[in-house]
Design a protein that fits this description.
Blueprint: E1 2-4, E2 7-9, E3 15-18, E4 24-31, E5 34-39, E6 45-49, E7 58-60, H1 63-81
Antiparallel strand pairs: 1-2, 3-4, 3-7, 4-5, 5-6
Length: 86
């Protein structure tokens, strides 16, 4: 990420989490105010705003955030196996 007088922006190579879908990917390219995220499992490219704020659709992944996400995913999978979630 890059921070300057205009704010904080994602950069190529940043690893991000898509808030709405839970998908993860790496920023493949940045152009103007847009970033292109290459999704890990599908290799699909999606477009997002490059500006980092609380309303953004994507957020940076730190090692702590990734651990929390993986724990939540494991708990959901366990609940599915037990029939609690369809």
């Amino acid at each position: 990420m890059e921070t300057n007088v205009d704010g904080t922006y994602f950069q190529e190579g940043d690893y991000v989490h898509i808030k709405r879908t839970g998908e993860k990917g790496r920023i493949n390219a940045a152009d103007g105010g847009v970033v292109y995220v290459l999704i890990d499992e599908t290799n699909e490219t999606k477009l997002f705003s490059a500006y980092v704020d609380e309303d953004a659709y994507i957020e940076p992944i730190t090692s702590q955030a990734e651990d929390t996400t993986l724990q939540g995913k494991g708990q959901r999978e366990k609940a599915c196996r037990q029939g609690a979630i369809a």
